[in-house]
Amino acid sequence: MTRRLKYLAIDTDRHGNERIYFRRHGVKTRLRGPYGSDEFLTDYQKALAVDGRKPVQKKVCKEPERTSIRWLCVQYFKSSMFTSLDPRTQKVRRAILEKFCLNNNNDGTKPFAMLLPKHIRARRDDMSEFPEAANGMIKAVRQLYRFAINYDHHDGNPAEKVEYLRGNPEGLHTWTIAEVAKYEATHPVGTMARLALGLALYTGQRRSDLVNFGPNHVQDGWLVFRQHKGRKTKPVHLEIPIIQELQRLIDVTPSAGTTFISTAFNKPFTSNGFGNRFRKWCDEAGLFHCSVHGLRKAAASRLAELGCTEQEIMAITGHRTSKEVVRYTRAASQKLRAKSALSRMSSEAE
């Protein structure tokens, strides 16, 4: 035979006898010799026909114990309380609860009835460097046990007794007039970056709504839409006039897509994709601490400085309560009150 066959290993023993082995998939088989003989070829064909690989063992997911936290999470994920949530909220909450089950030597295997406030509080304190993440964990566990109570799996909510960590009371940075001007100087009229700024600043909406705005939302010079957040559980329908400056930006910015702001391929942005793109636009302007959500706060602050009431501001932002609006506009309200107070003092001095 002139051609060397595959999977063969040939050596000689201490007596000078030739040994021929067939090796494949970690299995070694002795073949009769000599190499090229009828016996060798017969054994080789038999060995070649046999798949020596071990059968792949399918992983069988072990059903969690009915008393475990993981089992409770699985039931929650199947419930309407969970499936009625916004898909992004579902994704985030599932990730938090799955991480909760894996931490601290696989806490998910422990009985959910034995979880106490002190256990959650300890987990919260371990996350104290990241207060928003810690508070997100507490909120997710609260919702898990609310499900447990509603579906008669448990009669108490240990997470309700755990306090949230105090984060930054002001939240994300609110853009100043100077920062808006710096961004505009970097991104001229006609660019997608400039239109994105205008949409955020002159509508006061979240990025999940900004990415959806398009000609189909315009009716007689008004933006008519339902806010994306809470659209399944607490829908908010808004009608906002398109002011002249925003209309100018829309008119001069080329777009072949179905939305006002689009990717380089004329496709609509996803909410996260737009957030990443806007982050780059801010960085290009040297505004490393600014974000698209900060423009929503800036819009509310400007309205407050113009003397708009909380109800008027809520009619733009879509907030159902004044709690967030007050937080957004606290500085602007203080400025207005200070101006009013000192103007009265000046009038008395005259």
Automatic annotation (TrEMBL):
GO biological process: DNA integration; DNA recombination
Domain Tyr recombinase: 170-341
GO molecular function: DNA binding
Keyword Transmembrane: no
Transmembrane stretches, start-end: none
InterPro entries linked to this entry: DNA_brk_join_enz (IPR011010), Integrase-like_cat_sf (IPR013762), Integrase_catalytic (IPR002104), Tyrosine_recombinase_XerCD (IPR050090)
Similarity-based family: Belongs to the 'phage' integrase family.
PANTHER family per the UniProt record, alphabetical: INTEGRASE_RECOMBINASE PROTEIN MJ0367-RELATED (PTHR30349:SF41), PHAGE INTEGRASE-RELATED (PTHR30349)
Protein name, as recorded: Site-specific recombinase XerD
Organism from which the protein derives: Sulfitobacter marinus
